[in-house]
Amino acid sequence: MKPKLFLRILFSYFAVILLVAVIVGFFFTEQVRRNETWKIEESLLNYARLTALLPLPEMADQIGHLEKVSEARVTVIDAGGHVLADSQVDAPRMEDHMNRPEVQEARIKGSGKAIRQSHTLQVDMLYVALALRDGESIRGYVRMARSLLEVEHAVDRMYGSLYRAIGFALVPALLLAFLYTWKISRPVLEMRDYTRAIRRGELPGTLLVDSADELGQVAEDINYLVTEYREKIRLAHEEKGKLESALASMVEGVVILDSRNRIESCNQAIEAILERPETEIREKTLLEAFLNADLQNALDRFRMERKPVLQEIRLGRKDPRVVDVSISAIKDLPDGVEKTMLVFHDVTRLKKLEQIRTDFVANVTHEIKTPLTAIIGFLQTLLDGALDDRETARKFLQTIATNAERLSRLVDDLLTLSSIELNETSLHLEPLSVDVLIRSILPMVNADAKAKNILLNVDLPEAFLNILADRDRAAQILMNVLHNAVKFTPAGGIVTVSGSEEEKGNFVIIQVVDTGIGIPPREIPRLGERFYRVDKARSRELGGTGLGLSIVKHLMAAHGGKMRIESTPGKGTIVSLFFSRAG
């Protein structure tokens, strides 16, 4: 038995050395990797800041020189995310870079970084991007990238030192294991026989170990623990495992408070709500962790009334979450131990959906009620005798017809918008001539334009590019935009339809420019919302449903394009429609 025990102890020592080496190596590896990565990042940022002093065209011209100086791949990107120049790849072949993580972070914070694997070199690359600003606006980005191989080289050197240290420690460790085995082998074997007897279900009585040192004390402790705590430990581990599994799998956030009303533990859902790890939340009060007075007041009410509390609370300021918080005491704890459990059920999405439904019903009800009231009122007047006056009856019937048409347009627009949002609208994309498309629409708005003495102009370059779009839906988009332009342009005004090609992209831009009343800048972001009107009274007077631009916005998105609106109050509005270029 002795040689076998010796080998086990020797292996244990050897395993401890390896474990320590692995732990030390792990932490040192991460520290070395972080330090080396930080040095590369700072170097790239410094070169990027120096490069940012150059104008964009000069950056593109000097791209090769910049790569030699910085020893990094250099990419110059404009404000829209299009690559102007790259030191290793032909820029026109490169895709849009606006969605790159480092560029997105630079757009928000001024600088950004990202680490990802190069498909070409099969190594990790560090990308650092810097926003080029002119005042408050961004004129572009400069991005630099460098391989992280030198980081791995530093880690390899650290591992070499670690292996040498293990080699020097192995010989004294083996000698120590031999001496230690000789001393403790006999009492250990006695303990082994005793515990084996217990495993067989026998009752061997008291463990007697002829040793006055710590091994003797261990033998006494074994006697006590076996008789008093074996069952309790088994039950405690079982209950703890059940509780931890239940908390980890819960969608609801759970917080446990100790008797001092400080956070003892929480689950992953709470970490997601607070966007902080548990280590930063533990041992804090609710007020310190959540910074919410309503939550603290709910806890105070629970402590005062000593009965469960359920309350709706808003968490956060920038993008608040609405949660239902349930506060109750944890029961069946040992005497003198008090703990409180808070369960957070996130109902933010439900509240938003409820508000959307409420707003939609209110808007639809209002839009339908207005023409219906007019129709019912004039019909009642006709039934009360106005039919005898033919001229008056004709005017009333004309008003009824106008409001009925308005109701019909509202229902048609609602059905169209619903079909688009539910993805029930199938698009038959085909190359379309912009000139032919526009000239097929003009006759439909020409009558309204002539009635107001508005001049309709078409200003397209010769042999203008084709767009890739659904013919009927493209016509509907242009019809809605042109109708709006004519509707909100005073008599004697001008509406111009023009076209151009995006300089660094695959879009053809159709612009509708009017000399109308214009739109205040603060209202422009809301254009495209259902039933939103800048001037509600004027829009209804002109027969609008409030859904035209919303339909345009959704149809443009379905085409893979977008709508952009620029306006100056009193001078006019420019609506730009970005269609994909055909071919």
Question: What order do the helices and strands come in, and which of them pair?
Answer:
Elements: H1 2-51, H2 56-61, H3 63-70, E1 73-78, E2 83-86, H4 101-109, E3 111-117, E4 124-134, E5 137-147, H5 149-199, H6 214-228, H7 230-249, E6 253-257, E7 263-266, H8 268-274, H9 278-281, H10 286-290, H11 293-305, E8 309-315, E9 321-329, E10 340-346, H12 348-383, H13 390-421, E11 429-433, H14 434-451, E12 455-459, E13 466-470, H15 471-487, E14 494-501, E15 507-514, H16 536-541, H17 548-558, E16 562-568, E17 572-580
Helix pairs in contact: 1-5, 12-13, 13-17, 14-15, 15-17
Commentary on this structure:
GO terms for molecular function: ATP binding; phosphoprotein phosphatase activity; phosphorelay sensor kinase activity. It catalyses: ATP + protein L-histidine = ADP + protein N-phospho-L-histidine. Residues 363-583 form the Histidine kinase domain. It is an enzyme of class 2 (transferase). It is a multi-pass membrane protein. This protein is α+β, with helices and mostly antiparallel strands and 583 residues long. Among the domains are: 233-346, PAS domain (Beta-Lactamase, 2-Layer Sandwich); 351-421, Signal transduction histidine kinase, dimerisation/phosphotransfer (DHp) domain (Helix Hairpins, Orthogonal Bundle), CATH 1.10.287.130; 429-580, Histidine kinase-like ATPase, C-terminal domain (Heat Shock Protein 90), CATH 3.30.565. The chain is 53% helix and 20% strand. The chain is built from 17 helices and 17 strands. It has helices at residues 2-51, 56-61, 63-70, 101-109, 149-199, 214-228, 230-249, 268-274, 278-281, 286-290, 293-305, 348-383, 390-421, 434-451, 471-487, 536-541, 548-558, and strands at residues 73-78, 83-86, 111-117, 124-134, 137-147, 253-257, 263-266, 309-315, 321-329, 340-346, 429-433, 455-459, 466-470, 494-501, 507-514, 562-568, 572-580. The strands form four sheets. Strands 2-1-5-4-3 form a five-stranded antiparallel β-sheet. A five-stranded antiparallel β-sheet has the order 7-6-10-9-8, sandwiched between helices. Strand 1 and strand 2 form a beta hairpin. The longest helix is centred in the N-terminal third of the chain and has 51 residues, at 149-199. The chain is flat. The termini are far apart.
